[in-house]
Design goal:
By secondary structure, the protein is of the alpha+beta class. The protein folds into 2 domains: about 190 residues, no CATH class; about 280 residues, Aminoglycoside 3'-phosphotransferase, Chain: A, domain 2, CATH 3.90.1200.10. Helices cover about 45% and strands about 20% of the residues. Strand 3 and strand 4 form a beta hairpin. Helix 7 runs parallel beside helix 14. The longest helix has 26 residues. It is globular, with a radius of gyration of 24 Å. About 45% of the residues are buried.
């Protein structure tokens, strides 16, 4: 387009976008991989930093002075829906964008609105009927969110995920397919499970603010009564995750067939956790004040290592127990569960967006997802306690009591719903110890995140590490 600003100015524009994950890296080069002009929108796929760089989907309206994201334009919003609804094709210079609809999608195009809270993707909501999530980083292969949506569409979990209505693909000149968008049914909702529990826990901590029981038995009895609403939610969440795991393990096709866990799988995972452990310890040493505030010194970190080795060794025992690896969510936490008007639904099966696609589609232990949920429950309790008025001590004590009971409640419901899932060992003690190892992996990641973002919260994952090591040495699931 003759009125476009210089291409070099696209880099700072990209780095200012909420969905662009390369903000921390210096970009020295930008090149157009493919492009077209349609409806006054310049549709580009751009590569940053040469042939090895990432490729991004960048539809824009350009003027002499600035770039403007086309996803805010009604004409582009309607174009995308129409491509899917009519199985259409948008020709680019070298390749093409192809729409694919399922039988559930109506062909009329409702008015759309842009979702402003998204980060790694861009979403459009069409009326109250559909939501289109576009993957801005373009990667060869099918996105797991689409793949799993297709696999679960007709199985026992079909009512536990939003219905898949269609998808968008980019086909390059060589015919290689790249997922660039997924259209799902829009579910009227009351937010996600994190938000629901924050509201319920806020009420709980108000009710217990002036109560300090003389013994833990009294506290447990009071909590069982006062937190009754949260227990019902946790029963539903545990059931939901268990049913979804069973559906993933029985979905048709070789991409979903469970496979026996090998000792090589366990060894590779254990080695990865040790690498993360040492890197995190080095990071703590660079932030001694934050670590000290959370009650950990470098010598404490090193002192955890014998218990860590014992904890991780139980993963090798999973292979001996004959468990299977299967497809999992990969990034499950309370924020990934929508509290819809028809019950809780699992969202976002694409896994951790910054990981390579083959890792996001890889088989894993279902306990990885379970650990994501139990660690999220720990965060929910502490966040709700900190959200109240100081002093925080009483609320934090009630939060810890709630966390322990909530974890047990969720796990009990999950185990019943999962049944004879091949990824779970029959031996409950081994299941408990293996879960502690996956919780530990998650907590190590959380330490790095909190150092970078919320040093005051560093105590949460460090407490999780201590708890996981304790559980691995004889605690109970």
């Amino acid at each position: 387009m003759s009125s476009s600003p210089p291409l070099a100015t696209l880099v700072p524009w990209l780095q200012a976008q909420r969905w662009f994950s390369g903000k921390g890296r210096a970009c020295t080069d930008v090149a157009i991989v493919d492009q077209a002009v349609v409806d006054a929108v310049l549709v580009m796929l751009v590569r940053l930093d040469g042939a090895a760089g990432e490729v991004w989907l960048v539809p824009v309206q350009a003027t002499d002075a600035a770039w403007h994201d086309a996803f805010a334009l009604p004409v582009w919003q309607q174009r995308l829906f129409g491509l899917i609804a009519h199985n259409g094709t948008l020709a680019l210079t070298h390749g093409r964008i192809v729409g694919r609809a399922t039988a559930a999608l109506p062909t009329s195009v409702p008015a759309a609105r842009l979702v402003t809270a998204e980060q790694s993707n861009t979403s459009l909501i069409y009326g109250d009927r559909a939501i289109l999530k576009c993957y801005r980083r373009v990667v060869a292969g099918i996105n797991p969110d689409i793949e799993i949506g297709q696999a679960l569409a007709s199985g026992p979990a079909a009512t536990l995920v939003p219905a898949l209505l269609g998808s968008l693909e980019y086909h390059d000149a060589a015919g290689v397919v790249h997922s660039v968008g997924m259209l799902q049914a829009f579910e009227p909702n009351d937010g996600d499970a994190w938000q629901r529990l924050q509201r319920l826990l806020a009420d709980l901590f108000v009710a217990t603010a002036a109560i300090e029981p003389h013994d833990e038995a009294t506290a447990e009895a009071m909590l069982a009564r006062l937190a009754e609403d949260t227990w019902r939610e946790l029963d539903r969440l545990g059931h939901l995750v268990g049913v979804v795991h069973r559906a993933l393990a029985t979905a048709p096709g070789p991409a979903f067939a469970p496979r026996p866990m090998q000792h090589e799988d366990a060894a590779g995972w254990i080695a990865g956790v040790w690498r993360a452990w040492h890197a995190t310890g080095a990071l703590l040493a660079h932030y001694p004040a934050a670590a000290a505030q959370a009650g950990v010194t470098p010598s404490d970190w090193a002192g955890f290592e014998p218990a860590l080795a014992q904890c991780l060794a139980r993963i090798a025992d999973l292979a001996d127990a004959g468990v299977a690896l299967s497809r999992v969510h990969g990034d499950l936490h309370l924020g990934q569960i929508l509290m819809s008007n028809r019950g809780p639904l699992v969202l976002d099966f694409e896994g951790e967006p910054l990981r390579p696609l083959h890792e996001r589609r890889a088989h894993a232990s279902p306990l990885k997802d379970v650990a994501g949920m139990t660690r999220s429950l720990s965060y929910a309790a502490t966040a709700a306690a900190f959200a109240g008025a100081p002093p925080y001590g009483p609320a934090l004590r009630w939060a810890e009591r709630w966390r322990q009971q909530a974890r047990a409640r969720f796990l009990a419901a999950y185990v019943v719903a999962a049944g004879d899932l091949p990824g779970l060992p029959a031996d409950a003690a081994l299941r408990d110890a293996a879960l502690a190892a996956f919780e530990l992996e998650r907590a190590i990641y959380e330490v790095r995140y909190e150092i970078a973002n919320r040093p005051d919260w560093l105590q949460i994952p460090l407490h999780g590490i201590r708890s996981a090591l304790h559980a691995a040495q004889g605690g109970s699931m």
